[in-house]
Specification:
0% strand
Length: 254
């Protein structure tokens, strides 16, 4: 006899998405054999749907819930700048305007840079190689010892990492989350922000907010407002909050 499943009461209440004509399935129809015609395929879908229970109950282990029910997600803003550390509104507006000019230059020259070959002595890490990117951006000495290496005068080759901007930004943010701010790190973070495309992807949105919060935390630990790290940290907070429209993270003008 033919394979005919019981009709579900739900089908009477909900309209069918696709009209399916009645098909004549012979006694030789085997649901375990791949369908040979569109009618057989649609009929197989009907059969499988009819066999699904109306109500499904999931067995939950209460012990697992007790161990993993708490998840801490930080939604806070930046730490307020200490007295005298916050930049003026004019300074912030100037930095945003200059950053916008840099991004326009990057966009104008992007196609040219993509056509250029890397120097023979430059080996790019793979996109998923987090440790390789840390070494590439920060240098072997800074990576290995956590010490500040001599500052280089060259700007990083920002567009060389365009295909993996978000990944490298995540890698360096992870590094920064456990260590102090350095000039090498600051140059790469600025360059990566200059390459981020708007509108931001959700992952990039989360990363830059995390970066701004970390900058504000490190700024609290700086003993003097004349420390060279202060304007660099202020700059990153400014760009995230005012250029990328994360206004709740912005510094109050001094």
């Amino acid at each position: 006899m033919a394979w005919v499943p019981a009709e579900s009461a739900v089908e009477e209440l909900m309209p069918r998405l696709l009209p399916v004509e009645p098909c004549d399935l012979t006694d030789s129809f085997d649901p375990n054999v791949p369908p040979r015609t569109p009618q057989e395929y649609l009929r197989r879908v009907q059969i499988e749907a009819a066999q699904c229970p109306d109500v499904v109950v999931v067995q939950i282990d209460p012990k697992k819930l007790k161990r993993k029910q708490s998840v801490n997600i930080s939604l806070s803003g930046c730490q307020p700048a200490p007295e005298g550390y916050s930049p003026t509104l004019q300074w912030q507006q100037q930095q945003v305007a200059q950053f916008s000019t840099v991004r326009q230059s990057v966009n104008r020259h992007r196609s040219h840079w993509k056509s250029q070959q890397l120097d023979s002595n430059v080996t790019m890490p793979k996109s998923e190689d987090e440790e390789g990117w840390k070494k590439f951006c920060l240098g072997e000495r800074l990576y290995a010892e956590g010490a500040v290496a001599p500052a280089a005068s060259e700007s990083p080759g920002i567009d060389y990492v365009q295909a993996t901007v978000t990944s490298v930004l995540e890698y360096l943010s992870n590094w920064f989350g456990e260590r102090d701010f350095t000039p090498e790190l600051g140059r790469w973070l600025y360059a990566l922000l200059a390459c981020l495309e708007k509108p931001l992807l959700p992952e990039a949105h989360s990363l830059i907010r995390q970066l701004a919060r970390r900058c504000s935390e490190v700024r609290l630990l700086v003993d003097s407002k004349d420390d060279e790290r202060v304007p660099a940290l202020n700059l990153l907070i400014c760009l995230v909050s005012r250029y990328f429209d994360q206004r709740d993270l912005a510094d109050e003008p001094s």
